Amino acid sequence: MPDDTSSFESNYAGRWVARVRGRIIAQGDTPELARRAAKASRPKENPEIIFMNSKYNFHPLVEKIKTLLPEQEIYLVGGAVRDMFLNRFSHDLDFAVPSSGISLARTVAAALHADFMILDEERDTGRVILTEESGEFIYLDFATFRVNNDHKNPADILADLRSRDFTINAIAYDLRVGNILDPTGGEKDILAKMIRACSQTSFSDDSLRILRAVRQAAAFEFHIDLSTRELMKESVNQLSRISQERLRDELFKMLAGPRPEATMRALEMLGVFPYLLPEITALKGVTQSLPHVYDVWTHTLAVLKYLENILAVLFVEHEASNAEDMPTRLLVEHLGRFHAKIVEHFLISLNPERSLRALFFFIALYHDVCKPQTKTVEDSGRIRFFEHDVKGAEVAAQRASDLRLSNNEAERVNTVIVHHMRFHFHTSRLEVQKQEPSRKAIYRFFRDAGDTGVELILLGLADLRGTRADTLTEENWLAALQVARIFLENYFERREEIIAPPRLLNGNELMKELDISPGPMVGKLLEDIREEQAAGKVSTRIQALEFAREQLKGMS
Questions:
Q1: Do 516 and 501 touch, CB atoms closer than 8 A?
Q2: Residue ranges per structural domain of the chain
Q3: What burial letters (b/e) apply to 472-503, b meaning 16+ CB within 10 Å?
Q4: Quick one: pLDDT at residue 9?
Q5: From the centroid of its chain, how far is CA 527?
Q6: Mind listing the pLDDT tens digit for each residue in 388-437?
Q7: For a Cys-Cys bond, which of 187, 358, 448, 468 suits 252, CB 3.0-4.6 Å?
Q8: Distance (Å, whole) CA 172 – CA 79
Q9: pLDDT tens across 319-359, in order?
């Protein structure tokens, strides 16, 4: 049996370290040496320089809680302790106490002049919410010990830890004594980079932990213990008992995190999709004609991988000369100037609980979902998927609704998938016919897509790379990047000129001037005028009326 206390001591104790977003990136004997080391490895980052004066380096609030509750039996548990071993800095602090979790949370909130809420009345859990100067929230949760499954023996901290999901999350820091409790060997598993279940019943107790294991393995670049994988497979059918909301939340944490391609591949191998995203199961083994080099499922995974790479490049400022390969170099050369605008775009919030980035990866996962149902084979042997975009949009939007996504999120899913082939049309036209998108085509693209046009463009690039993979030529890629540049340039820099030209007259004015009655014709004329504005052929009210009169003659 592992010892209840840990011999772990931080490698950074007594050192100055540079920290970025909670992760240590460099160290040194002095603040300046730590800063220089950080600059060498991350030249564009602005790290926080701190001194590690203890073998256990937690958020300063942990010491504050110890001061506020000096006689209270209280333990820091879960992610904050795990992250300390990983040299990460957690802003979510979970405390376990024998009783009165809600009451203690209320006491701490009052002392810190922070917000308070009851998180789970049944489990006697209260939450304290603090806001840092940066605007970032810090959550302090106070929960009573988890009750033993047999309900015969009173719960204590060791029983609480053993009842948790994985050993890496079953480590506690005793605030009163100042030592680590590790009854399941979590420290050793962290050092071994292993996800291991705390007990044989971990997944039968809560099958959602199957998804959590996959997510944390990707997040920390750990592997899942073989016996734990077998336990996961044995309990996978119990996912049908989990609410759609809990499944959704865990899924979107995966999609928001690193390596979504790897997490989706793992879910498929574990047999999770029939209980989570049943439509996805049909993609595997569906063959496609050239230029596709993969079946639909492998292509979908490749799109997720390339999309993550594209966003990683465009979310920060890069020098093309530093690119490791041709596609990345050309991507930076053509689209790098838009990186700040693209970052700003993905700050759009459709729901405070989920990021637009996570929703985008959900869209990418579902963009070809109806290819199995629409597959046809011509006499020549060529495989086609007529209307897979339109039908796929309906299926994906319905799945979004089933997962209890908001109406705005479901609508965005529908819009991107229904239009996702339009980018390829313009790319092919440029590559084959040497025709760039016209001003009117650009206007229509964003008229139909709205601000999802940015996602359509980026998905189009990832889709192309996922289609051709290693057969992608510089000519293929340059055509796609040129189309992407034209669209983004107009969207970000010529919006009022082409994307959303100002209205020169309204419907009432048009009906009065042309002596026509209300009806669909009025809307069509107004839209035709806007297209002419976008094309640069109409710029004044007089020109708009003259154009409308000519159009009206053609309608009669």
A1: no
A2: 1-57, 277-499, 507-555
A3: beeebbbbbbbbbbbbbebbbeeeebbbbbee
A4: 43
A5: 36
A6: 999 999 999 999 999 999 999 999 999 999 999 999 999 999 999 999 99
A7: 358
A8: 10
A9: 776 778 899 999 999 999 999 999 999 999 899 889 999 99
What phi and psi values does residue 450 have, to the nearest 5 degrees?
A: 60, -145
The model carries a pTM of: 0.85
Tokens 């994985």 correspond to 166
Q: DSSP of 139-189, one letter per residue? A: EEEEEEPPPPTTSSS---HHHHHHTSSBGGG--EEETTTTEEE-TT-HHHH
Inform me whether the pLDDT recorded for 309 exceeds 60. yes
> What is the C-alpha to C-alpha distance for residues 61 and 82, in angstroms, rounded to an integer?
17
- Identify which of 417, 437, 433 has the alpha carbon closest to the alpha carbon of residue 484: 437
User: Phi-psi category of 412—alpha, beta or left, where left has phi over 0 and alpha has psi -120 to 50?
Assistant: alpha
CA distance 210 to 193: 17
| pLDDT tens digits, 195-241 | 999 999 999 999 999 999 999 999 999 999 999 999 999 999 999 99
pLDDT level of residue 55 (50, 70, 90 thresholds): low
CA angle 543, 544, 548 (to 5 degrees): 115
295 sits in the region (left: phi over 0; alpha: psi -120 to 50; else beta) called beta
Provide the angle, in degrees to the nearest 10, between the axes of the packed helices 260-270 and 226-235. Answer: 60
Cβ-based burial of 507 (10 A; exposed 0-12, middle 13-18, buried ≥19): middle
pLDDT band at 555 (very low <50, low <70, confident <90, very high): confident
Cα of first residue to Cα of last residue in the chain, in angstroms, is 90
Instruction: State the Cα–Cα distance between residues 189 and 180, nearest whole angstrom.
Output: 15
Amino acid 1: pLDDT:
38
Strand partners, 128: 116, 140
| Secondary structure string (H, E, C) spanning 292-357 | CCCCHHHHHHHHHHHHHHHHHHHCCCCCHHHCCCHHHHHHHHHHHHHHHHHHHHCCCCCECCECHH
